[in-house]
Amino acid sequence: MTADAPARHRGHTRHYAVGQPLSDRTTPASRRIGAAGILAVAVGGAVGTGARGWLSMAVPEGPWAWTTLGINIVGCILLAAVGSYASCRPMGELFRVGFGTGFCGAFTTFSTIMLLFVQLPAWQYIAYLLLTVVLCLAAVHATGKLTRHWLRSGGGQ
Amino acid sequence: MIWLLMGAGALGAVVRLLLERGFQPRPVTGASPWAGWPIGILLANLIGTVLLGLVIGYARQHAIDVHPRSWSHRGWDGRWAWLLATGLCGSLSTVSTLFVGVHALATRQPSRGVCYLLGTLVLGLAAGMLGFTAGNLIG
């Protein structure tokens, strides 16, 4: 058992795609979320929501809702960075959940972009959704690649 | 006000966490029809979108401006709407987890990622319109 432990660890690390949420892991420990985890998510969620609320007041949205788009892209980058890092290096469960699920999850918002059809013309709304999908996916992909590259070249040791 | 907003955001994030964990993606073994799909995040997004539609529809019907610039004139109506919309709904729904999940699904099987993304967008739009229409009808 002891001898093959490192090999199993390597296999485990390779098995999961970069950026894949670690909640996909089947280890029982990661499924349990205690009171401390809930508290961490509450704190992260409060800070993320506060940051989004403050930005929405400080930066005028403009007709294209650029502020929300920017917030969503930044949140995607942060979450992908944390996910990729945690899939290759040890990271505290509380920080991962508090920052990932709490901060990044609360900072970005799906409901707002869904309800933009109220204020945007149809063609502009479709373009906005397409732009969000393309930019967010590109952000997740690029961040995963960059983080993995950085970790391979010895970063974060 | 920002503290109340943060409180609403904390609540939204915890509800999302419970939904996410309650419908945990399982390895694709065929044990459950939802195996491998992040159903909890889809639910959180849909609930958040319906709620926001209700708030925005109701606010529009009653000429309530959700934006903070109008607060001083309109008492608590705008503030409540802002807390619900920006705080609770904004925090309950998420784009970052959605796209990281789509990317993870697509990495293993592109069709699954496309399916989940399109499903979320279509259902999300339907949820938004449903909530907005219902909010318009209230009161």
Model description:
- The complex is a heterodimer of chains A (157) and B (139).
- Chain A is mainly alpha-helical and 157 residues long.
- Chain A has one domain (32-152).
- In chain A, 71% of the residues lie in helices and 0% in strands.
- The two termini of chain A are 26 Å apart.
- The relative contact order of chain A is 0.15.
- The model of chain A is unreliable at 1-20 and 23-30 (pLDDT under 50).
- Chain B has one domain (2-23, 39-137).
- Helix content of chain B is 76%, strand content 0%.
- Chain B is built from six helices and no strands.
- In chain B, helix 1 packs antiparallel against helix 2 (39-61).
- The radius of gyration of chain B is 17 Å and the shape is elongated.
- The mean pLDDT of chain B is 87.
- Chains A and B meet through helix 3, helix 4, helix 5, helix 6 and helix 7 of A and helix 1, helix 2, helix 4, helix 5 and helix 6 of B.
Brief sketch in words of this structure:
Helix content of chain A is 71%, strand content 0%. Chain A is mainly alpha-helical and 157 residues long.
For this entry, give a set of tags.
heterodimer; A: about 160 residues; mainly alpha; about 0% strand; disordered N terminus; B: about 140 residues; 6 helices; elongated
Number of strands of chain B: 0
Domains counted in the coordinates of chain A: how many? 1
Helix content of chain A: over 70%
Helix content of chain B: over 70%
The major β-sheet of chain A equals: none
The oligomerization state is heterodimer
- SSE sequence of chain B, one letter per element: HHHHHH
